[in-house]
Structures are given as C-alpha cells and as structure tokens.
Amino acid sequence: MACVIALQQLPHALGVPAYDSDKVAVIAWHAVAGFLATPHWWALGTTLAVAVALLAGAALRPAVPFSLVAVAAVTIVAELAGLPLARIGALPAGLPAPSLGFLDLAALPSLLAPAVAVAALAALESLLSATVADGMTGRTRHDPDRELFGQGVANLVAPMFGGMPGTGATVRTAVNVRSGARSRLAALAHALILGALVCTAAGLVARIPLAALAGVLLATAVRMIEVGAVRAMVRSTRADAVVLVLTAVATLTLDTVWAVILGLVVAGALALRVIAGNVRFDQEPLRHDLQPQHTVEEHALLAEHIVTYRLEGPLFFAAAHRFLLEVSAVTGVSVVVLRMSRVTTIDASGALVLGDAVARLEQRGIAVYVSGIPDGHHRPLEALGVIGRLHQASRVFATTDVAIAAARERLHTTGIVPRLAG
Fold it and tell me: 217-244 burial, b for 16+ CB within 10 Å, e for fewer?
C-alpha cells in the first residue's frame, strides 16, 4: 500500500494534471512523462521539503504534529512569495440541509445490481484499510461486523446531505495512524475538524498547495514500509513470496480490489496444492494375524490377490485424482480394500473421482471393499451414487478386519484361493 500511496501522489508532487485512470501505474507513468515534457521544479521541491521535514521531525519529536506545521508553513510561504503551485481550490462553505429529494423508487430495480457491486467493493476496501491499520499499530484488531455496519449506516445517511457512497481509505487511515491515532476517537475528531474547517475556514484551506499534501502522503508511505517484515515474508516460503509479489504487482497495475481477489485465489490454489501433496494413499501389506488358523501357503496366496489401501487426510479433486491414477494401475489382484477411517473431508469432486476409481477396478474384474467410512461422510458418497452398488453387494464394512475376512471368503467361494484346513 505504501507504493500505491506514493504513486498516487506523483502528479501533485511533480506539478502536472492527474491522468484519469484507476490504475496507479498508469497515473504515475503519465505524471513522469508530463513532468519530463514540462518540468515544474517548485512543486517537486515543495514536496521533497515537506516529506524530509516530516521524516526528520518524526524521528526527533514524534509527539509534535509536524504535518500540520509543515503544511501551514509552506502555505504561508507560497502565498507571500506567489509561488506557482496548484492549490486545493474552492471548497463548499457549509453542508446542505438534509433532503430525500434524491430518492426515486422507480429507479430502484435498475440500480439494485450496481448497488450490490458497489457495496461489495466498499466492504472489501474498508476491511482492507482496517487490516492495514491493525498491521501499523500492532496492538488492536478490528471487528469486521462493526466496521461494515458503521460503514453501511454512514452510506445511508450521506446521500441526505448530497454525499456519495464512501469507504474506509487506506491513505487517510495510514496518515491518521502515523499521526498518533490510537482509538476510534481519532475518526470522530477527524470528522469534527473537517466539518469545522468546511464551515469556518474553507477559504484558507483552499490555498493549501497540493504539493505540500503530496509531501505529507509521501512521508507517510515511506514510514509504512517495513523492510524486515517484507524480507521475512519473502524468505519464509516460496508460496508466500509468490503471493506477495503477485499481489503487489496486481495492486500497481490493476487496482486494490482485483489485487486482493487475485491474491486470495492464488493463495487458495497454493494451499490446495500443499494439502493435496500431504494426502497419503498407502498400500499396506495384508495382515497375516487376522486368521491364524490359515497356513503359510494360504496366506501367501491371499497376499497375492488382496491389496489394501489406507486413505488419509482430505479427499478432494486434486488428491482424489492422484489416488485414481495410482489405484487404476494396480495389477495381479482380485480384491482391493479401501481403508477410509482416517479420511477427514470428502467433497463432491473427490467423491466422484473415488467412484470413478471403483468403477474402473470393477470393469477389470477387481472387487472393491470399503471399510471405516467416518460419520458424516456417508451422505456425499451415497448422494452421488458412489457406494450405492457396494452397499447392495454388501461390500461396505465398519472395520478393516471384517472387510478382509469378507474378501477372503469371496476368494474361497470363487475358487481363486482354495479353502485349506487349519
């Protein structure tokens, strides 16, 4: 966010008109191009002077509001010397009376879909600003429900005074925190001071140079950068580094909302990849101690015709696909026993792939037995028809011992393994 704040202020810092775009990289590019074509050294010098004064002042006297002092001093000098600096410009001298004249019930159906989109983007931007504030203070954590409720109430009231929907702004939030804000009273004081300025000092505020405000925000952006935290994230894992770099680039080239969405999607995909890699499908040797009366020769024959697989962890599409490839390649057996007691989650895609694996084995004449399906996992398997045929054939068991005993009985019945005397 520090880079976003800094790049957004480049047009004011360089004294050129801001390019109309929602991509900060495009705004910065046109600002630099405009400055190179027509340099405005007064604007650049003012911005750098204010930024340096704020950074030095914050290091020497953190409790002093150097931002107000610097902006006031630059404004006075600019007015007395007649410096060619762009100003904030005329502000309204007061607030309009509340009115419901904007309300048009006939337009509500056509505005519903855009309103939902604006509300979703506003919620994401506000929560992102609150998260940035949490990271900068390191002491408190915001309440998302309270944040969004307050934002919603404010956006319902603002139109009565001619206002537009608003969100929590990362730029103003960062300046507020870096100026010493520690509680919600800072937001109330901010609103009251702005209201007082609009009503009593609009003419004076209008004369503040935009370059001075750019210097304040550039200093804030510099102070937001935590090199140690960035270095730690880059060094932690390759996935964290990829998400960090990708989100940062998307923030600069696209916009904050799309960058967050893209970062979440990539982070989720990488997390699923890790989870899928941790899912285990272990082929286990047949336990010879289940029926001790069998001879060693019979156990050897049984071991050649029965294979058991233990499934562990969440069974979703990526992990189930690995299992499908592995179990479909099994050869030289007549029975496969799937041990599912340690499966933690089964989603619809994983259940379907599991059903595909069972069908492929049965097409090859390999009987499939299932044991130990955890409570709560029967429903998706039955709803998708994955184990319906196995239930009808009595091949679903509570324990592995019973499943293997049934598999042995099948081998004896079909004559694959002769029944030997114990």
Answer: bbbbbbbbeeeeeeeeeeeeeeeeeebb
